[in-house]
Structures are given as structure tokens and as C-alpha cells.
Amino acid sequence: MATALRQKLRHARQILFASSVVIGANLIWNTSALAQESAAADAAPLGALRVFFDCSGGRGGTCDFDFYRREIPFVNYTRDREDSEVHVLLTSEQTGSGGRRYTLDFIGRARFVDVDDRLEVTTRANLSQEQQLTAIADMLKLGLIRYIARTDQAANLDVAYEGLESDAGTVATPESDPWNFWTFRLRGNANLNVDERTEFYRIGGGLSANRITDGLKLEFSLGGNYNESTFETSDTTSVTSIRESYDFEALNVWSLSNHWSIGISYEAEHSTFENHDVRLNIAPALEYNIFPYAESTRRQFSILYTIGASYADYIEETVFLKTTETLARHSLSASLSIRQPWGGSFGFMEFSQFLNDVSKNRFQVFLGADFRLFRGLSLNVNANYERIRDQINLPAGDATEEEVLLRQRILGSGFEYSFSMGFSYTFGSIFSNVVNPRLDRF
User: Fold this and answer.
1) Half-sphere exposure of residue 97, counting CA atoms within 13 Å on the CB side?
2) What is the distance between the alpha carbons of residues 427 and 80, in angstroms, rounded to a whole number?
3) What is the largest CA-CA distance in the chain?
4) Could you tell me the residue ranges of all domains in the chain?
5) H or E element at residue 259
6) Engineered SS bond to 364: which of 59, 298, 346, 386, CB 3.0-4.6 Å?
């Protein structure tokens, strides 16, 4: 259940075109002449619509700002929202088939105050990054039309009507989906790193099967990892470290309403690091989300309660002189996730304890936030604290120096905390249109 909880906390057809994009299902906006003029000038004219594109995740992935600047060169991109006329906020969440649903919120500013809009685009799991970026860029162009239509740039808009030949925009149903919403994913990896004195290799893989609909979510996964490292400490001696883990996890969730859900998780695990030869766990759960689940890309505030039973067969006898045991455990957690124009924040608190001995418990709290304080200045803060009193799986006896340095087994600890803080301040030109990738890795 802990893995399922961490997964929970940790929150259309591709429209291809050369000089036009599909508006809704039937409208096309021709921008070739404008794009050519902008490309020749390497920047949009100063009188063009000013846009602040807000996407977390840095430069790579679907937050590739260089890509959007190339594909949509007919607006002026600002590096601060205070200088923009339209603030575009991109958020996303995973779909049941393994793809993603991207939500573009258009927030009007300056002369467009209260002129807001929201568009969505869904991509399949097997699309390349280029195809995903193209789909988002296409939808971004569509959303900008209503604003550009109110500027002098409206003269460059050419709208035409076309019928689409495919039914890409229709919603799938179990009758029309030969897989009945089931999605399968097979993964595997192997790493090898060798030098004259050390040798490291790792083999891992897994299989998952998911079926996700509005009313029911089914998730199953099977995976494993084997790690072996050899260190030559002298010409005649060497040290070998082996860590292996295998696990099976399943989660069933039923939607009760826009705010309530119930579910049950199952786990089976083998881990040399955690001292588990076999660990089995089953835990029903009840969740209440203060905000409707439909708003999950922008905000969530959920309260989760779980109660279940766990069986453990240990590799080594524990500090409590146990080789096997069956225990009951429950937990209560609350998590908050917000993404707004001023920035974003995420946090959660969780308390768990064993019911047969309430002194064996754990409390964890995490807070993270990224604030835009004022023009050009951003502040980010992250803090985590855990009070640990539930390490019933600790092997008896002291760990050797070799086991500690090579992280071959879990170590006892009463607490853990971390803190990080940073800021950034940018000043100068308000525009960020030009793309120049030369010597990017220099």
C-alpha cells in the first residue's frame, strides 16, 4: 500500500499540418505567410500578442520551449507573466491507456482580463516526443486565435471549413475497443559498467496491465531488479555486493462520486535490502477529495485512510527476535497539490502505526512550493521530515562496515529530514522569442 500511496502522491488524434491547424473539428487557420515573415525576422513584431507560456519540468519533454517558439513564431513570448497579455498554463495527467491528457488554461491579462479559456488534448502512449509536442502546439495555436482575433494581427487570419474523414475525435466505448480498455506494458533494462578496478551490472524488468475507466481502475504490475558490484581493493582481494528485489502489486479503485473513492491494494515482495524473504500485504482504502476529481490537474486536496494486514518472512532474525510475523496496520494521510498562475505547491502528511503495538509508528510530512513573488523573482522551497518508530524488519546484530558502505541492508534510524531552498531572478529584455541552439553542449 505504501507504494500505491507514493504513486498517488508523487499528481485526439494528432493534427498534422504544414501551414494550417484544425480549429475544433472543422476550422483551419492558415498562418504560412505570417510564419514566413516571423521566421525571416527571427522574432515576432513588437505589436504581436504577448504570451507567457507556463510549463513546469524544465527544457526537455513536453516543456521544450524551443519547440513551441519555432512552431508558433507569430506571438511575442515574455519571460515574466507580468509583461504578458495571455498567460498559458500547461498541466497534464496520465490517462488509463498510458498516454497523457494535457490541459491548456488561457488566462487573459492586461486588455484581455477575464477573457479566459481551457482546451484539452489527449495523446496515446506510443507516440513519440515529437508527436506529443506537435499535438500540444496545435492546440496552443487554436487557443490563441480568440486573442489574436482581437488584435491587428487578425488581418493575417484565414479561416476555412473542412470536414474530417476520420472519427478520431469520437470517444471510445467498450464495444468499439477490442482491448476493452486494457493496456499492457513490458519493460526491460540491462546496465554494465566496468573499469580496471570495479565492475557493476544490473538487470531489471517488469510487466504491467491496467484498465482505467471513469468508474473503475484496475492496476497490476510485476517487476524485479538484480544488482551486482565488484570492487578490487588490492591485487589479491575484492569485495562483491549483491542486491535483489522482486515485487507484485495490484490496485483496484471504485469511483463512488465526484469526491469519494474506495479501493484495495495487494502487495507481494522479496527484498534483500529490506530483509524480506517474503512480504505479503492487503489493505482496503477510502479516499475523500475536497475538490472534484475533474479539477485534478490544477488542484487536489485528498484525505486517505487505509487499514490492512501484513505477513512477513524475514531473511535474518530481526532485532525483535522474529523470523515470521503477521501484523495489522492502518494509516491516515492528507495531501494537497495546487498549480496556479502564481506558482505551485505540493504537500502531504501521513501517520501510520501497527495496531498490535501502537508504539511502532511513523509520521511523515513534506512541503514543497514554487512562488513567483514579483516580476522576475521566483522562490522555491522543499522540506521533508520523518519520525521513524516502525522498523520491525531490522536484522539483529550490528551491520558490518562493508554492509554499510555498500548499502547491502537497511539501517536503523529514528528520524530523517531534508531541506532545500533556492531563488532565481531574471531581468533585462521582456521578450524570449529567438531560438539559437548552436554549441548547446559546449
Assistant:
1) 14
2) 9
3) 81
4) 13-161, 298-303+312-427
5) none
6) 386
- In 315-390, DSSP assigns E strands to 324-340, 343-354, 357-374, 377-388
Kindly report the backbone phi and psi dihedral angles of residue 200, in degrees, each rounded to the nearest multiple of 5, phi listed first: -140, 135
* Three cell numbers, residue 101: 491528457
C-beta neighbour count of 180 within 10 angstroms: 10
- Cα–Cα distance for residue pair 137/119, rounded to 1 Å: 12
CATH code of 13-161, in short, is 3.40.50
- Considering only CA atoms, which of 156, 176, 172, 170 is closest in space to residue 25? 170
CA distances from 441 to 56, 64, 437 (A): 22, 16, 9
Cα separation, 265 vs 252, in Å, equals: 6
Nearest to 326 by CA among 305, 355, 362: 355
To 10 degrees, the CA torsion angle through 371, 372, 374, 379? 50
Q: Tell me if 272 sits within 8 A of 282, measured CB to CB.
A: no
Read off the pTM: 0.66
Spatial separation of the C-alpha atoms in residues 302 and 289, rounded to whole Å? 4
DSSP 41: H
How far is Cα 378 from Cα 342, in angstroms, rounded to an integer? 10
DSSP state of 399: P
Per the CB < 8 A criterion, the answer to whether 309 and 280 are in contact is: no
What is the residue whose three cell numbers read 488561457?
Answer: 106
CA 325 to chain centre: 36
Distance CA 112, CA 146 (A): 10
